[in-house]
# Entry
Amino acid sequence: MEYNIKNIDFQIIIRGFHIEWTKEVKVLQSKNDTVNKQVQRTREWVFGALLFLLDTIPYDELKISSITEKAGVARQTFYRNYKSKDDIIITYMDDLFREYRNRVHNAADKHPSKIYVLMFQLMMEQRNALTKIKNAKLDYLLYEHFYNYNKFFLEKMLQNEADRSSLYDIYSIKYQIGGAATIMLEWIKQDMPLAPEEIGNIVYEASRHFQDQDGYIPNILSKMDK
# Structure
């Protein structure tokens, strides 16, 4: 693939990012949720440009025009895909979540502990990108968006449980997601000192109390389609 980028150093970096992204994140979708290849390519370039520029420019001072110039995409193309700079990170998180769901769906072993380990394995694979986001002090975006998935899990639970819910279910999902998000971000902040298997089992042990409840997140995930 050719890149419309003049800076050779950046070209090497973005090409490397493209390989990592394509291999590990790739914006995997279900058949009914396919992303156009050009959109995928634009996301790769824009996210790669953001990561590159964060090495030298504080996020608050980083202009969208600088990102589009470095990525080699038109400004109007940027706004067809994103609403703001924050949306670049949010889209990246959504892509990771889709990939995570895909891995859970395809996993031979769907024990709850394995489902949590899969999440941290994916985070470990994205270590470089997540570290740059952390160093730019954007981890609050990761937490806020990760926590917002409580609505997603509640909707999936309602589908699985004939549209019945309770405040207990709602609060238990929020508690589980809030706890997992806090542990995940602390793990990232500490430069991922524990292996995915270790940190995944810590989250599993902390959430076992909910294992027999309708709102137990690993059970919801394991019953989902892609």
